[in-house]
Write a structure and sequence with these properties.
Blueprint lengths: L2 H13 L4 E10 L5 E11 L2 E11 L5 E11 L2 E9 L5 E9 L1
Antiparallel strand pairs: 1-2, 2-3, 3-4, 4-5, 5-6
């Protein structure tokens, strides 16, 4: 997402405007040939911004890691949950909450 997209989402959330939804996707390539492909979406409804994103990270040797990210923001704070599954199938979940 661009900075403008982030600002649009933030404005929609803070101003309490009608629902807004947006999708995004892309691919990044690192200096050693690894890639990260991502896709996700965000929606605002009733003062709540909810975003999900899935990343597929492929290392230079072909090892694949997936990462699923869920983020929800309200006027009270932000909750983010990240679930990462490595090339050997081990999954690690982290949750972070920040109150405003």
């Amino acid at each position: 997402m661009t900075v403008l997209s982030h600002l649009t989402l933030l404005a929609a959330l803070t101003l309490g405007s009608a629902a807004f939804a947006g999708d995004f996707s892309g691919t990044l390539t690192g200096p050693r040939g690894g890639t990260t492909s991502y896709e996700g979406s965000c929606i605002t409804t009733e003062g709540r911004l909810s975003c999900t994103r899935q990343d597929v990270i492929t290392g230079p040797a072909g090892n694949v890691t997936t990462r699923d990210v869920m983020r929800e923001t309200t006027s009270e704070g932000t909750l983010r949950k990240i679930e990462t599954t490595g090339p050997l199938g081990r999954t690690v979940t982290t949750t972070r909450e920040r109150k405003f």
